[in-house]
Amino acid sequence: MSSHPRIKAAIIGFGRMGEMYLHQMLRSTQWEVRAICDTDPDALAVAANIAPSDTVLTAHEDDIFNDPQICMVVLSALADSRKRHLFKAVEHHKHVVTEKPLGSNIEEEYEVMEKIRQNNLMVTVNLPLRTAWYHKVIREFISSGEIGDLAIVRICHMTPGLAPGEGHWAEGPLFHDCGLHYVDIAHWYAQSDFKTWNAQAIRMWNYHEPWWLQVHGTFENGIVFDITQGHVYGQLAKDLTHNGYVDIIGTKGIARMTHDFVTATVELHGITKTQVIRKPFGDKNLDVLLDLFARSIIQGNLDPSLPKVKDAVIASEYAWKFLEDAARHDMPARGDNKTLEEIRERRNNKRIGYGLLRKKKKYND
Ligand SMILES: NC(=O)c1ccc[n+]([C@@H]2O[C@H](COP(=O)([O-])OP(=O)(O)OC[C@H]3O[C@@H](n4cnc5c(N)ncnc54)[C@H](O)[C@@H]3O)[C@@H](O)[C@H]2O)c1
Prior knowledge:
Elements: E1 7-12, H1 16-27, E2 31-37, H2 41-50, E3 56-58, H3 61-65, E4 72-75, H4 82-91, E5 95-98, H5 106-117, E6 123-125, H6 133-143, E7 150-158, H7 174-177, H8 180-190, E8 194-204, E9 212-219, E10 224-230, E11 243-250, E12 254-259, E13 263-269, E14 274-280, H9 286-299, H10 309-328, E15 333-334, H11 337-349
Parallel strand pairs: 1-2, 1-4, 2-3, 4-5, 5-6, 7-10, 8-15
Antiparallel strand pairs: 7-11, 8-9, 9-10, 11-12, 12-13, 13-14
Helix pairs in contact: 4-5, 5-10, 8-10
Bound molecules: nicotinamide-adenine-dinucleotide (NAD).
């Protein structure tokens, strides 16, 4: 690998994720980041402090799309520009690593999927649970027969993270913005299509969108699931904590995972063995994603383990469906805007909380 010249790349959207991509690409010998685009001059000022001095910093995306030397773009702006960026990437023959979702709404995502299908460019989506070591270990354990037949997939992700109105306004309610990852990984475990579902949500702090949602249902192959997701987990507690797990139940054994965002612990209880594995959590796993994508470009074939556009579109579509189902049921409100203001103040000004976005001068709503 190291004998191959660095792949010339660019990043569009230099917020929290864009910065993570840059750090990872600077650590690797596979990439040369030639240009970074962001419409916010403050974001470009941050980039200037991190990127090598000869990196092009621009507010104009076409400086990147029109540069024939750039063969790959990272799309890490928000969902409202994703379709335009993906269409331009196809038209200008750039390979793409893109953030989710792939458009502002599901119709745009289907248009993107069709556009990409008609071309032979390589596109992968950052669905970091699919590149996480712990989910791969658990799925291998399931495949080995140790838990019997997979029957129940239980997933929970609750943190004192992104609060309503802090950012990501283009990505939809939280269960779409963040929840789609858990929809995706449930689908990945079951290896079957969603069949039935029933969702319950709550509008915390009287915000107009739900910020916690629980859904349970069935897959076509008879596996059942429940997903609980919310960034409503004690934002004003003296000491912050979270609750994240997968609990995989078979007809004979179980496999489960918990993490503290530093270390992930996998516990395997199979019919012939019991095993506990503790390893670094890996967070967004951009090292794995970018390494596999660089190898894919060099070899001319998308690595089959990389997340596909279709995976992201299905996850997005069902996250929307589960939100729609929750909206058909009673959706109570608890708490008030005063508490939400306290949460925003603590997160944005005191910088206390999980998943903090770069400090904003004003809230978006
Ligand atoms: N895969 C994951 O686990 C994961 C995690 C967090 C965020 N995300 C996704 O990543 C994307 C970015 O999230 P973030 O947390 O970095 O948000 P952010 O708000 O920190 O950054 C977004 C950046 O994009 C810039 N931008 C907006 N429109 C632009 C345009 N048209 N051209 C160029 N730049 C533009 C903004 O100025 C900002 O700097 C979102 O779509 C989000 O859904 C994915």
